[in-house]
Amino acid sequence: MSHSDHRKRRTGLVVSVSVIAAALIVVLLIGFGIVNIPGIMGGSTTSAKGTVGEDGFEITAGEVTVSAEGGVAPSGTPVHVEVVDDFTPTGIFGSAEPVSSGVEVRLGDDRQPQSEVRIEVPVSAEGDREKYSGEGDASDVSDPFAVQEHEGRMLLADFEYDADSGKGIILATQLSLFGFVRASFDAIVDSFTQSIKEFFDISVPRPDCYREDLSLSEKKFTLRSSEPEAAWLCLESGAEGKISQSLVMNSPGAWVVSSEPNLIKGTPLTFDIGSGLIASVLRIAVGDDSDVVFPGITANDHHLDAPDSVTLTMNAPLTVVWSFLSVAAVFLPTDKIDGLEEAECLSQVAITQDDPAGQVKAMAGCIAEELGGVGLIFGLISAAPGALAANISGIIREWNGATEVRYTLEPDIPTTVIKEYSPFDPDGSIRSDAQLSDDAAAITYDAEMASKSAVSIGSDVFDLGGTADGSSACWQHPIEANRVVCLRDVWSDELYLATIEGDLNHELAFDSGVDEPVLLAMELEDGSRWQLRRGGSWGGRADGRVGMFHCTEQCEGHESDAILSDDEHQFGYDSSSETWTAFVGELGEVDEHFPSPEEIPITEAWFVR
User: Fold this and answer.
1) N or C: which terminus of the chain carries fewer CB neighbours within 10 A?
2) What pLDDT was estimated at residue 545?
3) Distance between CA 13 and CA 8 in Å, rounded?
4) pTM over 0.85
5) Which residues contact 491 (CB under 8 A, 6 or more apart)?
6) 357 vs 387: CA distance, rounded Å
C-alpha cells in the first residue's frame, strides 16, 4: 500500500469519526432540548429565552420577534418564546386554515403582562386563496386574522396585518398561544350556527323551589301551564308579607314576562353567562323596566299577593339578539366585551323590528367597528348576514314550539265537604264514643214548644227552647221518655241530657227533613269555626245585614265579626256551587258603616240527621 493510500485511509477514518462525533453531539443537544430540528422529536419547534430589562425586552425565535416596552413586568422576569409550526385552531375556528406558526409567550411563572406585548410573525402567502374557500370562490375568503388559545377556548386576538411585508403583528395584553388563520365565510357561518345549536342545547334541572302544591299565607294554589317544561315558576313567602316569584327558564329564546297583578320589581335579572355585552344590549333593547327571561337564567320579582297569572311571550327578534351575542361572547376576550358596554352603535340594534338579518347586520357591524382587528370576523358577518340570520331563525323555530305560555295560579279550594251528625248507632242506641253529660239535666223544655229542626236533613230532630239555652238539634232519648238528647258542639261531639215536659207531638215528628235545611255549623278556609245564631243580643250595621252565625273556635281576627245575611242569602252563605261561600263582616251600632263582607270559602258544612 502506498503512502498516499495510507493517508487517504487515515483521512477517511478521521472524517468518519468526526461525523459520528458530530452526530452524537446533535443527538445529545436534541435530547436536552437545546436544538430543535424540523421533523425530529415529534414536531417543528424553535424556542428562545430572555429576561425583562428596564427598557423591556426583545427576543427573536426563528422568524418570530416578540417585544415589549419597560414596565411590562418587573426587571429580571424570565421570558420564554416558543414557535410551534403545527399550530391547529380549535372550537369555532376549527374549520379555519392556519397561515402562520403558532407562537406561545410566557412571562415568568404564568405572569400576565402589565402592558402590551408585540408579536411579529410571518404570515404565509403561498398557494391559491381558493383552497381556503369551501365553494372555491376566493372572494369568500377572509384576510388573515389572529386567534389565541386561552383556558381551553379559541378567542379572537388584537392584530395588525401588512399584506406587503407578509407579516402579522399581534398586540397581546393576555399571554397564551397565538396564530394567524384564514377562513371562508361559509365556514364561519357554519361554525357560528353550530355553536348556537350547542348553546341552545340546554336542560335546566327543575328547581327545588318548584312545588305543584303551594301553601302561601294559608292559601293553597294550583299551578297550571300549557307548556310545563318551558319554565319553572316558583312562589315563596318573602319579607313584609310579599310573595317572591322566580322564573327559571328551560326554553331557548327570549321570553317577555307579564303578570296580573303587575310585577313589583325585586332583584334584577341575573345573567349566568356574565357577559357585559349581552347585558348592555338587553338594557338598550328592552329598557330597565321590562321583564325578559332567557335560557338558564332566573328572574326574581315580588308581589304583595300571589299573582293570578303569569304570561310568557316568545320574542323572536330579541331571541336573535340573544343567540348571536351569547355565542359571540364565547370567543371575544373579556376586556373587549367590557369595552363594548358603552358602545353607542348598540343602540341602533332594532329589536322591535322583526328583521333577523337586519339585527345580525347591526350587531355584527357595531362589534366590527368598535373592536377593529378583533372584529374582522364580525365585519364578514355584517357584510352578508342573511345566511346566519336564516340559520338562527331556523334554530329558534326548531327548538321553540309555543309562542306563548300562560301560567294560572288558581285558589286550590276543595269542594265543600257536607257532613251529617247523628248521636245514634245504627241500632238506635246512643253512641258510646259521644261525649254525653247530664250537667244540664236541670234544663227543662216544653214539648208544646217543639218544632221541626231547620238544621236537619232527617226525621225526628227537634228544635227546643226559644232562647240562648235552647238547642237547634235535640232527639228523643231512646229509653227514657221524659228525656231528650241535645247537641252542644258538633266538633267535640258533646251532647247533653235535658228533661221534656209533656209528650213530643209525633204528629209534628216528621217522615223526612225540611225541604231546604240550614247549616248548624261551618268551618271556613281560614280554620275558624262558626255556629248558627241562637238567641242573645247582637249588634247591627247601617246596611241592614243581620248576623246569622257567630265564631266559636279559631276566632283570631273575627272577634267582632259575624256571618251576615242579605236579601239574596238569608242565612249568610251561598251554596249554589261546589264550593260554598260565607259572607263575613263586622257588627257594631245599627247606624255604623262597615266595609262589604269578605267572601270566605266554606270547607266543612254540618247538618244533623
Assistant:
1) N
2) 95
3) 9
4) no
5) 521, 523, 529, 553
6) 8
